[in-house]
Inverse folding.
């Protein structure tokens, strides 16, 4: 459960204040499927970083599962990121020298989980994304879609409560993109809260709920049909 | 993240840029090898020199006439010390129980001739005990006869060079030679000993001490060598000999007694200081290698910015990032140090093998210092880049900026 109240983020660039996010109110119940959309510079990424505890708000409150996390010190924030949040990035962000299994294992290594416990969980996570036979491959031996699936396995191996996907299909061809969306939607159906930041109306249209940002403010928060009245039915 | 996990991760990261890591490692290992090798050389030189001294016998007392001391007022009449005589030497041997052998020595330089060949040679007056006391050897014939030291027998033992120059291929045994204006008979030839304590022992003629004194019309011995039974007794023997001679010289302490130890320890000090100095110079290269580590780590941090951002997103606290990069620097310096030790010990071993006389082996303190310095430089020069990595803002780092 995510509750944002009057969440504001300002940057200081030179002597100018950039109002990246202004008094955003947002509630995301567990298991929700949310798309954050909007033009460049609308504050999508800032909102995603705040949701992912990578950044701290200038003011306002961010409660994650009942705990105020907006003002936690860096070391505690790191722990929240490690345990509660899974990230999927546009450029995959796999460590090139580690195998697929090594990449999936990484969050557990950082969390200090014993090797004996890690092995079955790595196997299960790779199984869930259909890459059991690629466990020993390095990222450069995998296709783009396979890399993103490794990244999803890595994001979910710690059983987080939220999966944050930043343009997850932005660097993939259409077919691979569809597979990735199918995969994370399947995970959403089994209870994982899913937040997707995207430019792509087709990806955004598949969400249960679309949050439209303009100039750091939420201008629309509704099911996809209402957001894009002109969208052809069954585009998903 | 456990220590082993950090180590494994850091190792993997280093393997990611092998050439760079390898070159840095080389820098550290050259520094460590330099320290180890140079101190090994210095230590070898020290052991060689002290070994040479010890070969003369470490339980040797040397009595010199005269007192090496600056007195308060200049003596007006008769500053000459009393003679050091054969009777003094005999008294020491007779009255001091700790003394095993006494070798009174006279010294002069005279023209030695055989047939129409002549040569200016150092003439050493001695007794049969000179042979064991100075660890000398006779190659052909006999050493000085065992006669009363007061008797001036016309017998001479010649050194190798003298034999070669005067006799050539001729057998010198029993041949008459002239020393100054007296005639001596050659009874033996000394074995080659080379230079010993600044005296060329091959270009020398040894005659009975009484003959030597008479030859140069001397009344005082050049010095008396005293061999003490055991090394531990050397100080008490020194006191006793001094007391005996003082008594014989009407209560005046007018002799100087040197121990082999005092000469030895002086050399020891000088050469140890030298080893320390060259070790220190070599250590400078280690600190240069440390700066190399810092450079590589800084490059590594800026190159892996997005990886650091990822680690943070995956839940790595700043402390964990700091440790990962610090361990990486430490791995570089420690493995470089290890390689340097191998090279250093290998080089020292090779030196000792090629020059057996020079026992080149690095002293333990130098090895310890090299290890500490190399590891220390890894920590010191690794902290700055590691802190930079730990403080990176996750959002900026993820963007790879």
């Amino acid at each position: 459960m995510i509750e944002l109240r009057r969440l504001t983020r300002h940057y200081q660039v030179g002597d100018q204040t950039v109002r990246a996010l202004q008094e955003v109110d947002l509630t995301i119940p567990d298991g929700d499927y949310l798309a954050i959309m909007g033009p460049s510079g609308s504050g999508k990424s800032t909102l995603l970083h705040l949701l992912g505890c990578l950044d701290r708000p200038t003011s306002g409150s961010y409660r994650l599962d009942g705990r105020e996390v907006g003002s936690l010190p860096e070391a505690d924030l790191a722990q929240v990121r490690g345990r509660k949040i899974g990230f999927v990035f546009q450029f995959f962000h796999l460590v090139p020298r580690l195998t697929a299994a090594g990449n999936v294992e990484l969050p557990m290594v950082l969390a200090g989980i014993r090797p004996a416990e890690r092995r079955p969980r790595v196997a299960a996570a790779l199984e869930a994304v259909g890459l059991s036979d690629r466990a020993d491959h390095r990222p450069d031996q995998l296709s783009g879609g396979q890399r993103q699936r490794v990244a999803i396995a890595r994001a979910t191996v710690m059983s987080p409560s939220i999966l944050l996907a930043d343009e997850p299909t932005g660097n993939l061809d259409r077919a691979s993109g569809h597979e990735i969306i199918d995969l994370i939607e399947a995970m959403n159906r089994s209870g994982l809260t899913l937040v997707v930041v995207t430019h792509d109306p087709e990806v955004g249209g598949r969400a249960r709920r679309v949050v439209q940002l303009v100039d750091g403010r939420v201008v629309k928060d509704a099911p996809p049909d209402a957001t894009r009245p002109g969208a052809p039915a069954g585009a998903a | 993240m456990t220590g082993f996990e950090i180590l494994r991760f850091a190792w993997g990261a280093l393997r990611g840029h092998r050439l760079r890591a390898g070159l840095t490692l080389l820098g550290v290992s050259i520094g460590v090898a330099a320290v180890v090798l140079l101190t090994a050389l210095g230590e070898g030189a020290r052991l060689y020199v002290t070994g040479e001294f010890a070969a003369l016998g470490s339980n040797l007392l040397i009595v010199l006439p005269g007192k090496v001391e600056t007195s308060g007022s200049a003596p007006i009449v008769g500053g000459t010390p009393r003679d050091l005589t054969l009777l003094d030497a005999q008294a020491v041997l007779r009255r001091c129980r700790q003394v095993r052998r006494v070798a009174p020595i006279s010294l002069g330089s005279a023209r030695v001739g055989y047939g129409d060949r002549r040569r200016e040679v150092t003439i050493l007056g001695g007794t049969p005990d000179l042979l064991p006391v100075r660890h000398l050897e006779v190659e052909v014939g006999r050493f000085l006869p065992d006669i009363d030291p007061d008797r001036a027998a016309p017998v001479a033992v010649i050194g190798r060079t003298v034999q070669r120059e005067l006799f050539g291929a001729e057998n010198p045994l029993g041949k008459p030679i002239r020393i100054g204006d007296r005639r001596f008979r050659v009874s033996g030839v000394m074995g080659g000993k080379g230079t010993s304590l600044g005296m060329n022992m091959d270009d020398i003629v040894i005659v009975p001490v009484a003959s030597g004194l008479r030859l140069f019309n001397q009344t005082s011995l050049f010095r008396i060598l005293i061999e003490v039974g055991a090394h531990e007794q050397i100080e008490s023997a020194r006191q006793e000999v001094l007391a005996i001679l003082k008594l014989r010289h009407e209560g005046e302490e007018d002799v100087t007694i040197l121990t082999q130890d005092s000469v030895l320890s002086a050399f020891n000090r000088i050469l140890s200081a030298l080893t320390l100095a060259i070790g220190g110079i070599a250590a400078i290269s280690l600190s240069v290698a440390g700066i190399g580590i810092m450079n590589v780590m800084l490059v590594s941090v800026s190159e892996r910015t997005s990886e650091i951002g990822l680690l943070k997103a995956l839940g790595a606290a700043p402390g964990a990032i700091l440790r990962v990069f610090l361990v990486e620097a430490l791995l570089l310096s420690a493995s470089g140090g290890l390689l340097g030790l191998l090279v250093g010990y290998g080089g020292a071993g090779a030196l000792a093998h090629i020059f057996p006389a020079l026992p080149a082996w690095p002293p333990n303190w130098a090895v310890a210092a090299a290890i500490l310095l190399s590891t220390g430089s890894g920590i010191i020069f690794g902290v700055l880049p590691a802190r930079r990595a730990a403080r990176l803002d996750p959002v900026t780092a993820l963007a790879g900026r």
